[in-house]
Amino acid sequence: MIQKKKPEGVSVGQQMNRTGIGASPKDGKKMVEAAVADEAAPVDGKKATSMRRFYLEESDAIGTMPPPTTVKGAAKTVKEALTGTKATVLIDKVAERMAFERTGTRLYEAILTKHEVLGSFDGGPSAEDLKHIRDEEFEHFVMLKKTLEELGADPTVMTPSADLAGVEGMGLGQVLGDPRTTLAQGLHALLVAEVADKAGWELLIALAQDLGQTQLVERFRKADAQEHEHTRMVGGWLAAHTSAAAKVV
Ligand SMILES: [Fe+2]
Ligand SMILES: [Fe+2]
After folding, report:
1. What are phi and psi of 208, to 5 degrees?
2. What domain count does the chain have?
3. pLDDT (tens digit, 9 = 90+) per residue, 108-157?
4. Domain with 138 in it: what CATH number?
5. In a domain, 53, yes or no
6. Collapsing DSSP states into helix, strand and coil, what is residue 175?
7. For ligand 1, a single-atom ion, which residues have Cβ within 5 Å?
8. Rounded distance from Cα 193 to ligand 1 centre (Å)
């Protein structure tokens, strides 16, 4: 069934929402009685906890790092050569940010399509605004790829932290990829991405500082400043949308 798109700012749907128990008090009462009577229901969560415990004890870690590499481009790129564990930790975290920036670029591609088809709203983004952020996310991706290469690492490796970042971003991709979501709903997913992105850059800068990599700190700070701007822009669009929906003058 093709759903008719609702215009931005209209929060009340045309179709009856019957998800709440109050939609049918008689059946709701029966449902509560049945749940209370069902002794198998994991009310205390003990069964779920014991199953989680079992899998935690049995499972391997999420991926591994390739053998530690010596920093190849140390002379021109980094002040202090990194080897062994330090290099491995830095490479894993740079790969994490690279995975996130790649996802970010794709998320903005997806919202650009929504923008093209559905249009914007008062106080919302223009196509140029969204393209500007998309381009910066892509620039960050390219910069991180270059950084990995300069560190002597293979940028195509899926590191454990990169794997995690990919899984964490899956829900965001689902929101943006869902044809039923509006531009504002897509922007909400992007706000989640931007806040996580900003925090991720701050962690990476702190790590590079700890490792004495001043040139990398400088490079990462520029990206972090752009992420602050992204968060402010996306947050502003969403605030305008929510105020209009609630008719706050
Ligand atoms: Fe980003
Ligand atoms: Fe961003």
Report:
1. -60, -35
2. 1
3. 999 999 999 999 999 999 999 999 999 999 999 999 999 999 998 999 99
4. 1.20.1260.10
5. no
6. helix
7. 101, 104, 137, 197
8. 8
